[in-house]
Specification:
- The chain is of the alpha/beta class and about 400 residues long.
- The protein is about 35% helix and about 15% strand.
- The chain has 14 helices and 15 strands.
- The chain is globular and about 60 Å long.
- It has one domain: Metal-dependent hydrolases (TIM Barrel, Alpha-Beta Barrel).
- Zinc ion binds next to loops.
- The site of zinc ion has 4 residues, from loops.
Length: about 400
């Protein structure tokens, strides 16, 4: 992580208090530079005058911050709201349960072992990193050819976020890319996370959006995916509170990776609300791994948040990390249909959450274009109206990604 004293001045010697819920009123912008005040304990000045001027005067409102700059939300086009283009997911490695696992853990991916890897996708080390910039550029170009306009790269701090690579993907493919900010799950938090307070974390997130990431000048456009486990750890609570504060500061949406428990989304939404977040600008991701009761989905939707089914393309029921039956694409659409029929079509977004090689086209997978190529026609067959399809694939992503 970059040192927190680069690019701004700070004076937090007196800041020892844990944050209370009053920061919405106590943070504010000032023209010429961004000043953040937190309960009178912290004063920070970010020196990107242009961005903060624009924010203070509302000029950024309605624009989406891509890795190549701000664009009108209407220019995004079809958008998948949860992908990983460049990722180091090596902490997810798990030995497989069968006798082949020792040999196959470090094997290169071949046609002979691809069937095994498709089932045991977290048990082959080569499968859980995406770092080949040329290969990914061509995958993103295939998405473009399928009609794709924009991708949210939800890779947050801890799993190999790479702003320069995202710029290359966008330039090489013509696809708009929105980069994530904030912290992934506790297992990959920065080493100094225990000693950092909410203000520090909120400042880092805000800096990634206002100034750019790690001195690259490339700016994040969404806070997330914010990683949560079940039960939440104390550092994840800090991370969530910091995300809420940074949302208040920047107007960016928050994308949540909930822990694997059906109560996790509601608990997180409550924590975010208590921290001053605007729940109408929060996306709850991974519902296809987390909530299987329609009543619970209704309860989550009634909070005003966006609901995200983001594992399209996973057609198998076996999920190696939890004792659940993974829904297939048809079942995902059946859940979504029930929620849209209940009046929430304007609150649903979708994606593939590709984070492994076996799902890329060059490894025999469905690629980033799967939703546009294969799912939209099934939505029509299942009775989704053209307006609803347009809402889910274009209008809802544009609305939530536009800075508020
Ligand atoms: Zn996730």
């Amino acid at each position: 992580m970059p040192p927190l004293d680069s690019g701004f001045r700070r004076n937090d010697g007196s800041c020892t208090q844990h944050p209370q819920v009053t920061h919405r009123a106590s943070y504010r912008f000032e023209l010429r530079f961004l000043t953040v005040r937190y309960n009178g304990h912290v004063t920070l000045a970010l020196d990107d005058a242009t961005w903060s001027d624009a924010m203070a005067s509302g000029q950024n409102r309605g624009l989406v911050q891509t890795v190549l700059g701000l664009i009108p939300a209407a220019e995004l086009g079809p958008t998948t709201t949860h992908e990983h283009l460049q990722i180091d997911f090596s902490f997810m490695y798990r030995p497989a349960q069968d006798s082949s696992s020792q040999i196959l853990a470090d094997a290169p991916i071949t046609l002979e072992n691809l069937g095994w890897i498709r089932r045991n996708y977290y048990s082959n080390r080569a499968n859980i990193t995406l770092t080949d910039v040329d290969a990914t550029t061509s995958e993103v170009s295939l998405y473009r050819e399928a009609g794709g306009g924009a991708i949210v790269d939800a890779t947050s701090v801890g799993i190999g976020r790479d702003p320069d690579a995202l710029v290359q993907f966008s330039r090489g493919s013509g696809v708009h890319i929105v980069m994530g900010a904030g912290f992934y799950v506790d297992a990959v938090h920065p080493d100094d996370m225990d000693g950092r307070n909410v203000e520090d974390l909120a400042l880092e997130i805000t800096t990634d959006i206002v100034e750019g990431v790690d001195g690259s000048g490339v700016k994040a456009g969404i806070i997330g995916e914010v990683g949560c486990t079940w039960p939440l750890t104390s550092n994840e609570r800090k991370s969530l509170t910091a995300a809420a504060i940074a949302q208040t500061e920047t107007g960016a949406a928050v994308l949540i990776h909930p822990g694997r428990h059906p109560d996790a989304p509601s608990q997180i939404l409550e924590l975010l609300a208590d921290s001053g977040a605007d729940l109408s600008r929060v996306i709850i991701g991974h519902l296809d791994l987390t909530v299987f009761e329609v009543d619970t989905l209704h309860r989550i939707a009634s909070s005003g948040c966006y609901l995200e089914w983001d594992l399209f393309g996973n057609e198998g029921s076996y999920y190696p990390l939890a004792d659940i039956d993974m829904p297939n694409d048809a079942q995902r659409l059946d859940y979504i249909k029930q929620i849209t029929d209940a009046g929430y079509s304007y609150r649903i977004v979708i994606g593939h959450d590709i984070a492994t090689k076996h799902r890329l086209v060059r490894y025999g997978g469905h690629g980033y274009g799967h939703i546009l190529q294969n799912i939209v026609p099934i939505m029509r067959r299942k009775g989704f109206s053209e307006d609803t399809i347009q809402a889910i694939t274009v209008d809802n992503p544009a609305r939530v990604l536009a800075l508020a």
